[in-house]
Structure formats: C-alpha cells, structure tokens
Amino acid sequence: MTILPTKIYFPAKVWATIAFIFGTAPLFSQTPLYFPPKTGTAWQTTPPASLGFCPERIDSLYQFLEDKNTKSFILLKDGKIVLEKYFGTFVQDSVWYWASAGKSLSAFLVGQAQDEGLLDIHDKTSQYLGTGWTSAPPAKEDLITLWHQLTMTNGLEDAVPDDNCTDPSCLTYKSDAGTRWAYHNAPYHLIHDVLEEASGVSLNQFTKTRLLDRTGMKALWVNHILYSKARDMARYGLLTLAQGVWDGDTLLHNPQYFYDMTHRSQDLNKSYGYLWWLNGQQSFMLPGLQLVIPGEMLSNAPDDLIAALGKNDQKIHVVPSKGWVVVRQGNDAGYVGPGGGQVPIYFDNDLWKYLNQLDCTPVATTEIFDNEPVVSVYPNPAQNSWFIESSVLPEKIELFNVLGVRLLWLENTVMVVAEGLPAGTYWMSIQVAGKQVMKQVQK
C-alpha cells in the first residue's frame, strides 16, 4: 500500500496571514531564546551550577567523551552555552564534517525553496532532473516525488555497491515509491541537484543567502557533505529549537512544513521525519536493515528529542522540552550495533546516561547507570548454539537475518540453536525485564 502524506500545504503568503491572525508563539517552548550575534565570537553563557550541574559529573561526561574519540562538544540551554569542550588538538575554530547530519539541514533548505515557490515537495522529481534520472521503468520513476526523497521512501534499490552513485544505472527499481522505507544516500544527494535546478544557483550560494548569512553560520558543501565549526552546528540546532525563526527573522514561513519535518512523516519508519530522526516513537528502522525494531530509538533520551545523525557519530540533538541543543563532532565512538557506520545510535544512548546524571540531585548509582539490562551473547561467532548471559531470564528472543526476516522466536530460554543456519551475520532481539536489547551475532 502506498503511503501518502496527508498534510495540506499553502503558499508562504497564506501562512504569513495565518501567523499574523493567530500569533507567532513557538510550538515547542514559551521560554525566551537567546541568539548569539551574527559576527564575532561573543556568545552568552549560563553557569552549569545555575542548572544544578555537579562539577564532578561534568568531568565524568568529558572523560566519557574523550574516551569515545570526541573532538568537540557543546550543550546549549535556551540558546546560551552551558558546556563547551574541545579535545586533543581541536579548538573552537577547527572545522569538521557533518556527514549525514547535513541531511537535516538540507530538509530545511527544501522548505525554504518551497516558501519561495521554487518547488513543491509533491512535485515529481523528474520535473527537475528530467525523465530517465533513474533506470526504473518510466511508469515507476514517474511515481517518485520530492516528498519520497525527503522521507527515504523513493522505492529505489538501496543494496547497491556504491550508495553514493547518482548515475541512472545505479538507481534501480525495487518497489513503488511510498511502499518501502530504506536509507539511501544517492536519492538524497539528488535533492541538492533539485535545489540547484529550481533556484538557478549553486547549492553553496543557496545555503549562504537563505540560511548562513541570516544566522551567522559559516559552512561549505563539498561533494554533498557540509563542513563547519562546532558552533555553526549549534547555531543550526538553535534555529531548529526556534522553529525556523532567528532572533525575529523568519527563515521558514510554513509552520506545517516545519512540523512535518520534525515529526513522523510516514508509518513505515515511525522515527523519521523529513531527513530528521525522531525519538519517543513506537518503533524505528535503521540503515541497511528491513527490520522494524519495536520501542523508541534512545531509551535514555527525552521522548521529544529530534536528531541530525551522521557517520562516525556526528550529532545535533534538539530537545524542545528542555530547551537543549547538544552537538558532538569527532571520530567513530567505537560502538557496533544496528545502523552500522551510517547512523550509529548506541553512543547516543550512553551519552544521555551522562547527560541525565549532570543534575546534582542525589541518586543511587544504579539509577544512573543501570537503565539498560546487561546482556551478553556467547560464543560469537557460534557454530552450534548461542547462549544468552543475563541476570534475568529473557522473556523473548527473536533472530533476524540482515534483510530483517525473522527466523526464530523463542520464549523463556537462554539458548538459541544456530545449527542449520547459513554462515553469516544475524540480529538477535532479546527482551529482558521489559527492555529490548539488540545484538549482532555471527554464525
């Protein structure tokens, strides 16, 4: 069944009239936000102690970040810097790549282009790229719209040798647009081509005039990857916290587009908006797996967290309920799990253990660190059977292949028979004490 968007879109002038009539109070928070000057390095701060943060717990957070190959870390509260730390040779002026965290900024640019009447996200992609931009049958290519590109539901085959290849020969038909969610870089990259075709200027020029100059950001696209300093990522997180309004300057006029960008866009992957990741949903999918994983992505993070996530753990976390923006740049934090290297999320969950414990309110150590059940699987690789080691008997164990097909369902056991299964990689979902733990296992 094809999943179609249900929201109604109006021209920017109509939204401006609606905003004038009903007011422009932010949907996320009523707390006044601070915006740093567009030039210079001045940025107001909030003392960590004023938020009840313990110095020793800040130190523990910084040690964790350093151990996990972090280069820069920033925490904003209502726009003001609470924590800012650079590691190794990295300094405030160091430039790093966003990786796929830049996808979320691209979604904002598309909204701006729609504001200006340069495009409509329900337009067919071929309207901008020409027919034959894929090697799909013409009738199938004709189904793909910009909305499908924003939501990763374009239906093109994602299991390809080069995920970044945008040649028509690399873009083959897998299913009808809107019927399958799959994380695929190449169709996303072509959003940039659409923006250039629709606007008549380069991607860097469009980004500079519509977003960078109006927020004080400095950034540059190189081969579809955005590069900037950590504070520039923080500025974009703050712009998102402010729902597209920078210190009274409305950069994104259509509140419906902003809402849809930062909320569930379709029911295939409930934790995906328009190139933004969403916490607090009933289930989620990750790159490389046609597996719907029950539960929210980050059990330790606030339910209203939205995230721009990139390879090697580039992060922008926006938490409206707390007025927080969290930025992390660096190398791969070293976690292995669902999402692979494209969108790793295990580091995020551990990071939120430390963020949750910053408050000096006395809590037991178990309350801080034991939010997740400790589960291990051995031997791994296995020839005959895997055994689950846990302080609590698992209620349910499911085994999936890399395509997300469930092969086994077991209850109240600690042994999973591997004999008879082909050699390869599998995902094991283990439910312990009401929590779900995902483990990658080998046969």
In short:
With 443 residues, the protein is α+β, with helices and mostly antiparallel strands. The chain contains 12 helices and 20 strands. Strands 2-1-13-12-11-8 form a 6-stranded antiparallel beta sheet, with helices on both faces.
Q: Would you give an account of this structure?
A:
The chain is 26% helix and 21% strand. It has 443 residues and is an alpha+beta fold. It has a 6-stranded antiparallel β-sheet, sandwiched between helices. A hairpin with a 2-residue loop joins strand 4 (219-222) and strand 5. Helix 3 runs parallel beside helix 7. The radius of gyration is 22 Å and the shape is globular.
Tally of contiguous helical segments:
12
How many structural domains can be distinguished in the coordinates? Answer: 2
Radius of gyration: 22 Å
**Strand numbers in spatial order across the main sheet:** 2-1-13-12-11-8
* Main beta sheet strand tally, sense and closure: 6 strands, antiparallel
Unreliable spans are 1-27, 363-370
User: What level of helicity do the residues show?
Assistant: 25-40%
Number of strands: 20
The chain-level mean pLDDT equals 89
End-to-end Cα distance, whole Å, is 35 Å
CATH topology of the largest domain: Beta-lactamase
CATH architecture of the largest domain: 3-Layer(aba) Sandwich
What is the CATH superfamily of the largest domain?
DD-peptidase/beta-lactamase superfamily
Q: Which percent range describes the beta-strand content?
A: 15-25%
Assign the structural class, choosing from mainly alpha, mainly beta, alpha/beta, alpha+beta, or little secondary structure: alpha+beta
Molecular shape: globular
